[in-house]
């Protein structure tokens, strides 16, 4: 290492000790794909501030690029699957969600979605076993003396690791199916009368019938559908920890929940002191485009450009759908930049260019960009909000339908159904969001709200992680609800006791009255006779 680098590193470490508390060692239990992209922003910032970040990644993980040098360390543990296996598991699950699920009715839709999610989390549990049952690895982690575990709550295991290593943990989470983890792990209170449950596609302004729908969803999610196969997870956790426990109980020990939304995106609802809403923390100002792309963007003239991406998870669409989309795009006066990795559709217009990868953030921040056609991933919607670009949503799976419903309710997006849409539907939707100024106005309103926060979301996320390291937890933020049983939580024991008191008092009073009545009524009668 050169002198220069040594002194730079030394400087970082010094700044760490003197300005922001103390440097810490962070162990990360990640989730792949877009979740990782979001979390990586936090990790990069932690590294910048001098903390040591180690990510636990399986040998099948696709987030580790061995060719890229990174300040983030990767602890790669062996697993029986290969990278190809992992990707094919994922692609199969996504395709089932994309092509099979829309054919089902309401109830079977969710039970099928549950099955897909269970398969996915079964895979996560196996990865978890590869870590916690590997004595060599666990000893190594023990000896590394980490200060904190940062975990994506969607894929459990981080909380178990923290428990085994006896260190505090912080969650990053967009949502869990039916809000099960937030509600029953975190203790978050979400009244069904005005908080639409995730995946219901409702807004917070609900009619009586919509409130009935929301209640049915809530009951269905609470009592029927399970986010993960709880029995298996509970048993696994009890075995590993050597005492009867459950996944949700262990999750309840989280010091802090960093939820990846904010009030520009989600509808207002009550929250607890150990929840913070850090949506859009990955957003940043646009950088200049490469010359070739900039020239293409400039060639659009007054009409501007449309940016189109269905995200990183979906690379192939059916040929029929691709052609419908391409011919819709050919009808608009704008130039279109389409992130697409597949066979070139024959209906592709001269105004559309295909790219395997696009600098999405830089494009959305470009003054010529008029609209964004998106699948509605949370990260993507936040980039559109950040740069104030109206959206056409083609939601595909998971939370995307709900995300687009939020943007629609806030007047910043138009939704088209990806299975049934025709070319005219898509080009019509695009014309609407571009020609009707209300969409731009609404998304700019959201953008201003997003930019006008007392502390930036990334700084808040990092603050809480450093806070938990500095104070070895954040117990003072934890509601005592976690220590109560369900009947204590709902005060059923107290209500029962008070009812018993009332009944006893009524009983005693009645008895007394009867007694008095008998005692004094008789002489009274006699008296009357006299
Ligand atoms: C990494 O580099 C090696 C050798 O240069 C190459 O064969 C391999 O494909 C690269 N891997 C990735 C993921 O780019
Ligand atoms: C346990 O982990 C270590 C370190 O990652 C690895 O070298 C070893 O092969 C693992 N053992 C098993 C049985 O997977």
From TrEMBL:
Main location as per UniProt: endoplasmic reticulum
Enzyme Commission designation: 2.4.1.17
Gene3D superfamilies xrefs: Glycogen Phosphorylase B
InterPro entries (alphabetical): UDP-glycosyltransferase (IPR050271), UDP_glucos_trans (IPR002213)
Stored SUPFAM superfamilies: UDP-Glycosyltransferase/glycogen phosphorylase (SSF53756)
One Gene Ontology cellular component: endoplasmic reticulum membrane
Pfam families: UDPGT (PF00201)
The keyword Transmembrane is annotated on this UniProt entry: yes
Endpoints of the signal sequence: 1-24
Gene Ontology molecular function terms on file: glucuronosyltransferase activity
Keyword Transmembrane: yes
TM stretches of this protein: 494-517
Membrane topology value: Single-pass membrane protein
Subcellular localization(s) per the UniProt record: Endoplasmic reticulum membrane
Entry's family note: Belongs to the UDP-glycosyltransferase family.
Protein name as catalogued: glucuronosyltransferase
Originating organism: Carlito syrichta
């Amino acid at each position: 290492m050169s002198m220069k680098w040594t002194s730079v590193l030394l400087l970082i470490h010094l700044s760490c000790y003197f300005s922001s508390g103390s440097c810490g060692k962070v162990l990360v239990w990640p989730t792949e794909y877009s979740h990782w992209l979001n979390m990586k922003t936090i990790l990069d910032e932690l590294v910048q501030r001098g903390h040591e970040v180690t990510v636990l990644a399986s040998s099948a993980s696709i987030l580790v690029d061995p060719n890229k040098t990174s300040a983030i360390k990767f602890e790669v543990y062996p697993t029986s699957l290969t990278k190809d296996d992992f990707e094919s598991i994922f692609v199969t699950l996504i395709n089932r969600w994309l092509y099979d699920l829309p054919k089902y009715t309401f109830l079977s839709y969710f039970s099928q979605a549950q099955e897909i999610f269970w398969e996915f989390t079964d895979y996560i549990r196996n990865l978890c076993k590869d870590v916690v049952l590997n004595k060599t690895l666990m000893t190594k982690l023990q000896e590394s003396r980490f200060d904190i575990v940062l975990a994506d709550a969607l894929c459990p295991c981080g909380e178990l690791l923290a428990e085994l290593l006896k260190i505090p943990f912080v969650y990053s989470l967009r949502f869990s199916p039916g809000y099960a983890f937030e509600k029953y792990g975190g203790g978050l209170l979400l009244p069904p009368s005005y908080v639409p449950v995730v995946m219901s596609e409702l807004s917070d302004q609900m009619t009586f019938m919509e409130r009935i729908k929301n209640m049915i969803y809530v009951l269905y999610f609470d009592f029927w559908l399970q986010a993960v196969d709880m029995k298996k997870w509970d048993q696994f956790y009890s075995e590993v920890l050597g005492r009867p426990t459950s996944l949700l109980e262990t999750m309840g020990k989280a010091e802090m929940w960093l939820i990846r939304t904010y009030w520009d995106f989600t509808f207002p609802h009550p929250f607890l002191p150990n929840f913070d809403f850090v949506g859009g923390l990955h957003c940043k100002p646009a950088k200049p485009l490469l010359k070739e792309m900039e020239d293409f963007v400039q060639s659009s003239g007054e009409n501007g450009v449309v940016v189109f991406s269905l995200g990183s998870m979906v690379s192939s669409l059916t040929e029929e759908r691709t052609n419908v989309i391409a011919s819709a795009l050919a009808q608009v006066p704008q130039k279109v930049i389409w992130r697409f990795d597949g066979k070139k559709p024959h209906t592709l217009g001269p105004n559309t260019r295909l790219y395997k990868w696009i600098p999405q953030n830089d494009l959305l921040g470009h003054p010529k960009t008029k609209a964004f056609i998106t699948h509605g991933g949370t990260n993507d919607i936040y980039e559109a909000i950040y740069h104030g670009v109206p959206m056409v949503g083609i939601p595909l799976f998971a939370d995307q339908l709900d995300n687009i419903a939020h943007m629609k309710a806030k007047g910043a997006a138009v939704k088209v159904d990806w299975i049934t849409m025709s070319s005219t539907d898509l080009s019509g939707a695009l014309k609407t969001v571009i020609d009707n100024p209300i969409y731009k106005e609404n998304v700019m309103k959201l953008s201003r709200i997003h930019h006008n926060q007392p502390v930036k979301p990334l700084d808040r996320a990092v603050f809480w992680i450093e806070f938990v390291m500095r104070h070895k937890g954040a117990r003072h933020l934890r509601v005592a609800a976690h220590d109560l049983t369900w009947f204590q939580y709902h005060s059923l024991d107290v209500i029962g006791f008070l009812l018993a008191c009332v009944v006893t008092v009524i009983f005693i009073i009645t008895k007394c009255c009867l007694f008095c009545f008998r005692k004094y009524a008789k002489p009274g009668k006699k008296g009357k006779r006299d």
